[in-house]
Write a structure and sequence with these properties.
alpha/beta, about 45% helix, 15 helices, Rossmann fold, eight-stranded mixed β-sheet, about 10% strand, about 375 residues, homodimer
Chain lengths: ~375, ~375
């Protein structure tokens, strides 16, 4: 193997497969698609920090997409922030897209607030609180349509980067991973530095019980798992991945939520797994309060790559604070950074991405 | 010029430019996008045959798209037919897509009935009867979003084929062409062999009057023309074309409706015209009751190509009857055939397309 992994990308799982995956996408233009959705689960107090307050989380996915298209949000003032005012990781993705010029698409998995941008409609509905045990309507319809979209995108793409923006998504990830029989407690990530693992588990257990289904019944039925305790991003992302990975490589761009998507893919079409990798941030892979390696290795032999974004030397406090474990990932921040580095054959680095992020941050946020 | 135009494609306007356009797309995989919409104008008695009856025209665009994805319709039984039972030109497009394997996308310009397929949503509304003089809501919003979608598709496409399916569309084409100051009376096409030119003109005149705008005010304002007497396909198709034609060739796949789209493109972004051609069927270019050459040459120097589809020797009466001037064009039948021929460097011919059409026809229609 003469291919050298650039120092701004770390291989975290499946060294050899990861190296081969990187080699395949090296110098190639990616196609980026972000699947967005809303779930009422995000509004359970204490669960999500992907919005200034629980009600604001409804706007976060739409606002993130507007950021990619217009360099500013339309459905809200400013940009999505945590309750402490920390800005969305969408700024990272926006910067990677700007630097690399990669084409980007939006896919509506099921939204309460629609973005002012063009997007793929799959006829999904926004998700309910998973404590009802009936959180997503007809995920199979959405999955089937996403497969078709993925197949067509694959015909004109070198490889597909699939990202997500859905507040509350790590709780639904715990839900689906648990339903599918994986050991996931304590292993999903959080936008908060103090990961509310016990609250998440309580919510998931309540949903699984309310679903009225036996635990074993979920094991081989990912759509039933989504329907009971999942979210509207999942079926869309899994379908896109399966449709595309029949013919091209797919980089699932996200943290532990993408482990849940991977588990769904495995249950729906095992054969596509060997064309898939996960790309995330260093903030996820070095996080002591979650464990993406354990989750992914329970599912299958799938490489995990991380972009070594490091904001500790940033001029801006609002970015520096990412190093304390706030936010960590979202909108495919890590995967889109890896894709930008790979497309440019390493000319785009973690450093140039941070420069671009700071420029955008200064324009968008730091006006106080 | 050593490039030889294949005998199944006829150049009908701008010989030299057409030849160069063909040469540029020769051997290249196209990206096909069909813009669909509904207008109440289609339900004016005597205007459109793009449905078994006026109410059925609501379902035609959605059903056409389902045909492309599934090889059969979902929102209706059978396939869209004229009142006489003649099947949709979507069968032609479906056959060209099947033979060539080209990727295809659906764009919702403004629908009353949504297809059971993935599609780009641009937040357009279905159109009203143009006699109201207020036929389309906020075409500029739809145009702007379509430009963004076109720009992103262009990054991963060699060239873009833009088709349409919207019953009543030749009347709205007359409306917009007239509003923009072109001599269009008697020149737009029809799904009917006896083209109801006078009825169309009466409807358009009524709409222009009801709009309350002075004739001159429309001349330089394509969006105002669409808003008054256009349809929801137009802004979406024009925006897609402008967004894509900034960087790649665009083939407008349709008859005289695409002349109206061309006029809109000219008014919005003149500079993209030199990257655009029209591709249609022989049934349009040899039609004695319409005049696409006159329409296009009034607008600018834009090549018109036609696919020499000839059903006179078909085994099926329902296809043979296309030779009498029924249907003629739609769903990009002509342009998608040209694209299939060009992609295959002439290996796909009018003959092989007819063979495929007959196979699909036999399966779908000829069960009586």
């Amino acid at each position: 193997m003469s291919f050298k992994v650039p120092e701004d990308i770390t291989i975290c799982l499946e060294e050899e497969m990861a190296r081969k995956f990187l080699e395949r996408i090296w110098g190639k233009q990616p196609t980026y698609a972000c699947v967005i959705g809303n779930t009422e689960t995000a509004k359970i107090p204490g669960l999500s920090a992907a919005g200034a307050n629980p009600e604001a989380t409804d706007f976060t996915p739409a606002a993130d997409m507007e950021l990619l298209f217009y360099g500013k949000c339309k459905c809200i003032d400013g940009v999505p922030v945590t309750p402490d005012g920390i800005p969305t990781p969408g700024i990272v993705t926006m910067s990677s897209i700007k630097l690399s010029g990669m084409p980007f698409f939006v896919v509506n998995g099921g939204l309460r607030v629609r973005p002012h941008v063009p997007y793929f409609e799959l006829d999904g509905a926004p998700g309910d609180d998973i404590r009802t045990g009936r959180s997503v309507k007809d995920p199979e319809k959405v999955y089937d349509r996403a497969v078709l979209a993925g197949q067509n995108l694959a015909k004109i793409s070198n490889y597909l980067v699939i990202a997500e923006s859905i507040p509350g998504g790590t709780t639904t990830a715990l839900g689906v991973l648990t339903a599918l029989g994986y050991e996931a407690y304590g292993k999903v990530s959080s936008t908060l530095p103090a990961n509310p693992h016990e609250l998440k588990l309580k919510v998931v257990e309540e949903g699984l019980k309310a679903s009225g289904m036996k635990r074993e019944a979920f094991r081989k039925d990912p759509m039933a798992a989504i329907e009971a305790v999942g979210d509207p991003m999942m079926a869309a992302a899994a379908g896109l991945a399966v449709g595309a990975a029949e013919t091209i490589p797919v980089l699932l761009a996200g943290g532990t939520q993408m482990a849940a998507v991977l588990a769904i893919i495995k249950g729906m079409d095992y054969s596509t797994l060997n064309n898939i990798a996960i790309g995330t941030t260093r903030w996820i892979t070095k996080d002591g309060n979650s464990d993406i390696r354990s989750l992914v290795s329970q599912i299958g032999k799938v490489p995990v790559l991380s972009a070594n974004l490091n904001f500790s030397l940033s001029r801006y406090d609002g970015l520096k604070i990412y190093e304390t474990g706030l936010v960590k990932e979202g909108v495919g921040a890590g995967g889109s950074s890896i894709a930008a580095m790979a497309a440019s054959e390493g000319k785009i680095t973690a450093h140039t991405i941070l420069d671009e992020i700071e420029k955008n941050y200064a324009r968008l946020v730091s006006r106080r």
